[in-house]
Design goal:
The complex is a heterodimer. Chain A is of the alpha/beta class. Chain A has 11 helices and 11 strands. In chain A, α6 links the parallel β6 and β7. The C terminus of chain A is likely disordered. Chain A is 39% helix and 21% strand. Chain B is an alpha+beta fold. Chain B contains 25 helices and 15 strands. In chain B, a hairpin with a 5-residue loop joins β8 and β9. In chain B, α12 crosses α13. Classes of the chains: A alpha/beta, B alpha+beta. At the A-B interface, α1, β7 and α7 of A face α4, β2 and α8 of B.
Chain lengths: 293, 738
């Protein structure tokens, strides 16, 4: 009698075990989460911001999986302001202060979060590592058109340039004597965005252009950074006042901004965000008040 | 050969039998279990192997399909690049810039293109095939491999190449200002080239979770593996010409390897991790192993059950056979089936039946006397014990009857032993017909028979015995006329439980005494056991009764010591009583005479057995010892109060009438009457019995002797009375009448 009970129990146990196994296998194929509950934050604007903000968004989304930060391709600072005003962007990215006109006519908030160091850079094929401000001016004005004139190879210089309203160029105009007077040398290639500029410096042999130190570090660009007047561009040289080519990066937003967008700004401004800025060669606004201008 | 094999198997079995003592069920169970287990395990193993093979196959198919997908991806990419190049080349602006050989303008056009299309190399050639503009994020290599000849003549060209640097996709298109009118000689050629290196493969790896290697001339040119794994991979290529099927990488993950030839001694290998399939395999294996284990347990239990089922009847038979061996024939094997077990059980049952019959027969024979068909002595003794116990338990009476054929020696001498045997047989027949079924008639020995009458007191026993005596008296035995009294007769003695005795030996002795009495006094007679001492019982308290029993025992001791005087006391009692009645005495006097007669020789207990049985004449000293026995007898009886009256009879039973007797030499009527009567009775019995120191006398001779000594040793008046009694004959009858 006992034996019969035992056998029955064993058989039942076997069946239950078998069913359990089957369930175990099926479990593995169930979907894990639901994408539709996520909130999107659209960010766009000037290209100088984009490498850093993309990096920030990447880190932020790891900690906040319910939020998607979408960083669009560069549309310039003006594009950032306009699209934010139109409500196309939740957050606009700018690399210049608002104009008086913009301040007066628009209901947007401007908040600087970092400084970026603007550098001159050349294609890796170029052997020159240092230029004076004057040499830079001469190259851009077309007075120097061959690298041998500044101690390099006997190859014509392909000069990469941006439009006149590029804020870096405005900075150079302001800081480099005589820079504002050039009107495009013979071989000047004008590019629309900072990303196109980066591509150009990377791809075109014996070319020179300008870009952000942060973009170089974040995108791991294979380009040659040019020292100006023998000063290596970097956090220290900026802090010591030896290197002056600096731009301010800022967010702009409308009063109707979403709380997720504000939370992202908060993250960028947080200790973790600042640490990231320093890692990639940016200067947090609050940390270095003295380097403004 | 066969013989030797059989011998070997036998010795093996014997060896195991010596080593391990196991039951048949174990012998059945273990091989059954092992065989079934092996079958289950083999099936499980085969299934596992089959599943493993299937899974391997699935892995291979998956790897092949992923490889095909990757190859297709490259082909699609080639198409995309070709189309992209074609569209870009038919651009008026580019055409114009090339026409003007305006490098800056070309850069301005192509840099954003390169940025957005993410292509690695963009090249622009002029009509002569001279490189005009080169946009590249990698160092320029193997430009000679790019064939722009056809594109210089207006054709679009694309290719997918393998070289020592890895995979290369390129497309070349003629630069024209009009998409529709392509008959003109193009102004230049636009080439977009994509190198598939580690970086590109990594992106595929991220998407497909596979490892990809491109091998040219047995060297890895592009791979998603790290350096250690690359070395391992290279080693495998060199050892197996790329034919290996699986590889375990540094992180212990196992991969299935699939190959595709790309031409030019180049291969692309796709290694897919078999993690999922391995997990599936593991789970299936676990399930199968579990099922196998459970099945094994089930088989174990079922084999135990089966063994019990098969061996159960056998075990039952063994236990019953063992019981039969130990003499218990009540057990039989229950036959349930008609198979070999059933047949064996039937055989055992039949055997047990036969054995029981034989044993019963033998036992019966052992209890029966062969000649008479009555029970034998041994069985009689056994049954007497049982019947006495039973009577004791039920408080019921029991009588023992002893029967002896009178003058049977005489009959045998005259008629011969065969006739004597016939008499014994016929007597057995008479006994059987005159007793009840519950009674037990046995041949006690020789011509002596015994009957146990259960639940019968002395009167019933007397009736039965009388009936038997009469039946014998009237039976026409052969030659009965030659016997004394012209008849074959029997003497019968009866003793009853609990009246006369309570133990078996005593009962037998008393019945024997009664038989002896019947025999001695006159044959053809039934005698109930009777003791004169029993008469005293009514006058005695318990302690005296005990003492009297002691005296009785003493007397039986004397009788046993002096075989010639066996029954002497009883006979003296008989004679003395007869004389006392003849002379007329008071009841009180009669009692004294009876008891005195019974106890008169009690003093002989002090005399040694040798002296008592001595056959030669005694010397003076011995005579003096002998003469002391009346005094000793009186001393022995003196503590018993009821015997006080009897003491003089004992003390003086050897005094002579003329005063010449002992111990005191009393004479005449100074001697008590009881003593004087005992003197005559004692002497008469002594004369007519076999005594060691004198010849036996006939009754007539004894009578003369008594008459001669009348007035000498004996009281003459009492001698007269004694002789009268003898002549009247039935002395015993007179005694019983009292």
């Amino acid at each position: 009698m006992n034996r019969i009970i035992l056998i029955t129990v064993l058989t039942l146990g076997l069946l239950i075990y078998g069913v359990g196994c089957k369930e175990g296998i099926e479990d593995r194929h169930q979907p894990q989460s639901n994408e539709e509950s996520k909130v999107e934050v659209i960010v766009g604007g000037d290209g100088s911001n984009i490498p850093l903000i993309r990096k920030m968004a990447e880190v932020y989304m790891q900690n906040n999986p319910e939020v998607i930060i979408k960083v669009l391709e560069s549309v310039g600072s003006a594009g950032g302001i306009t699209n934010t005003q139109r409500g196309l962007f939740d957050l606009g990215l700018v690399s210049r202060p608002l104009t008086k006109e913009e301040k007066n006519s628009l209901q947007i908030t401007y908040k600087p979060y970092a400084k970026t160091i603007t550098i001159f850079a050349a294609h890796p094929s170029v052997g020159v590592t240092n230029l004076t401000e004057e040499q830079v001016r001469q190259i851009y004005s077309g007075e120097i058109s061959n690298w041998k004139e500044v101690g390099g190879e006997d190859r014509p210089i392909t000069v990469l340039d941006r439009h006149e309203d590029d804020f870096s160029r405005l900075v150079f105009n302001f800081l480099i004597p005589g820079f504002r007077d050039y009107n495009g040398g013979g071989n000047t290639v004008v590019l629309a965005t900072e990303q196109a500029m980066n591509e150009g410096i990377s791809s075109v042999e014996y070319s020179i252009g300008w870009t952000d130190l942060g973009a170089v570090k974040i995108d791991q660009l294979k380009i040659k950074i040019i020292n100006i007047n023998g000063v290596v561009p970097g956090y220290l040289s900026v802090k010591e006042g030896k290197y002056k080519l600096v731009k301010e990066l800022a967010f702009v937003w409308r009063p109707e901004v979403s709380k997720q967008a504000l939370d992202f700004i908060k993250f960028v401004d947080s200790d973790e965000g600042r640490q990231l800025m320093l890692t990639y060669g940016y200067i947090p606004v609050l940390e270095v008040p003295g380097v403004e201008n | 050969m066969k013989e030797r094999l059989r011998d070997n198997i036998k010795s093996l079995i014997l060896y195991f039998e010596r080593k391990i003592s196991s039951t048949v069920s174990t012998k059945i169970m273990i091989p059954f279990f092992l065989v079934t287990l092996i079958v289950i395990a083999s099936i499980s193993g085969l299934v596992l192997a089959k599943i493993n093979e299937q899974i391997k196959d699935m892995e291979n198919r998956r790897a092949v399909s992923i490889l095909a997908a990757i190859k297709q991806r490259f082909q699609e990419e080639q198409m995309v690049i070709e189309n992209y190049t074609r569209l870009l080349a038919y651009s008026g602006e580019l055409h114009e810039a090339v026409l003007r050989k305006d490098q800056g303008k070309i850069y301005q056009l192509l840099i954003p293109v390169k940025q957005y299309s993410n292509q690695q190399q963009l090249l622009v050639f002029d009509t002569e095939g001279k490189l005009l503009v080169h946009l590249s994020s990698v160092a320029v290599k193997n430009l000679d491999e790019i064939n722009i000849e056809r594109s210089r003549h207006g054709l679009v060209e694309s290719d997918f190449r393998v070289n020592r640097e890895g995979l290369n996709i390129y497309a070349a298109a003629p630069i024209n200002d009009d998409l529709l009118d392509n008959h003109d000689i193009p102004q230049g050629v636009l080439v977009i080239s994509k190198h598939i290196g580690d970086h590109e493969l990594m992106s595929i790896k991220r998407r497909e979770n596979v490892e990809i290697n491109v091998v040219v001339d047995d060297k890895i040119v592009a791979s998603t593996l790290n350096n250690t794994d690359r070395e391992k991979f290279t080693l495998l290529i060199n050892n197996s010409r790329g034919e290996f099927a699986s590889i375990v990488l540094e992180d212990k993950r196992e991969f299935v390897n699939t190959w595709e030839n790309l031409g030019n001694n180049a291969y692309i290998s796709v290694m897919i991790p078999n993690e999922d399939l391995a997990v599936l395999n593991l789970e299936i294996t676990k399930t199968i192993v579990t099922i196998t284990v459970f099945a094994a347990i089930l088989v174990l239990f079922s084999s135990i059950f089966l063994a019990k089922l098969m061996v159960g009847p056998l075990r039952n038979m063994v236990s019953i056979t063992r019981a039969i061996t130990h003499g218990d024939f009540t057990k039989r094997i229950e036959i349930l089936t008609k198979d070999e077990f059933g047949q064996l059980g039937e055989s055992i049952n039949y055997m047990a039946e036969r054995i029981k019959e034989r044993i019963d027969e033998a036992e019966h024979l052992a209890t029966i006397d062969g000649l008479t068909g009555l029970y034998n002595h041994r069985f009689f003794q056994q049954r007497l014990t049982e019947e006495l116990n039973r009577a004791q338990r039920l408080r019921s009476p029991l009588s023992l009857v002893f029967i002896d054929i009178d003058y049977f020696k005489h009959y045998n001498d005259n008629m011969g032993h065969p006739a004597g045997d016939r008499v014994l047989q016929q007597l057995g027949q008479i006994l059987r017909t005159n007793i009840r079924g519950i009674d037990i008639a046995a041949r006690y020995g020789g011509e002596e028979f015994a009957v146990i009458l259960a639940d019968a007191a002395a009167p019933q026993a007397l009736d039965v015995s009388e009936r038997i005596r009469k039946a014998v008296e009237e039976f026409p035995f052969q030659g009965k006329g030659t016997q004394p009294g012209a008849n074959v007769t029997i003497s019968v003695g009866i003793a009853s439980y609990p009246e006369n005795a309570v133990t078996k030996d005593e009962l037998i002795k008393l019945a024997d005494d009664a038989l002896y009495k019947a025999k001695h006094l006159s044959k053809n007679r039934v005698v109930l056991y009777y003791s004169v001492l029993d008469e005293l019982k009514s006058d005695m308290d318990q302690s005296e009764n005990d003492l009297l029993n002691t005296v009785k025992t003493l007397i039986s001791v004397i009788n046993s010591r002096d075989k010639y005087t066996y029954g002497h006391s009883e006979r003296v009692v008989h004679y003395a009583t007869a004389v006392a009645v003849e002379v007329g005495v008071s009841t009180e006097e009669l009692r004294v005479i009876k008891v005195g007669a019974y106890l008169h020789d009690i003093g002989k207990i002090e005399i040694s057995r040798d002296l008592l049985n001595k056959s030669t004449p005694l010397n003076d000293e011995e005579i003096e010892i002998f003469k002391q026995h009346p005094v000793w007898g009186a001393e022995i009886a003196s503590p018993v109060k009821v015997l006080q009256d009897v003491l003089p009879a004992i003390l003086y039973h050897h005094e002579n009438y003329d005063g010449t007797g002992y111990p005191n030499g009393l004479a005449g009527t100074d001697i008590p009457l009881a003593a004087r009567i005992l003197r005559i009775a004692d002497s008469f019995d002594a004369m007519t019995s076999i005594r060691p120191y004198q010849d036996i006398k006939t009754v007539e001779e004894a009578k003369k002797e008594l008459l001669r000594s009348a007035g000498g040793e004996f009281d003459p008046l009492l001698v007269q009375a004694f002789i009268r009694c003898l002549e009247e004959g039935d002395m015993y009858g007179k005694m019983v009448a009292q």
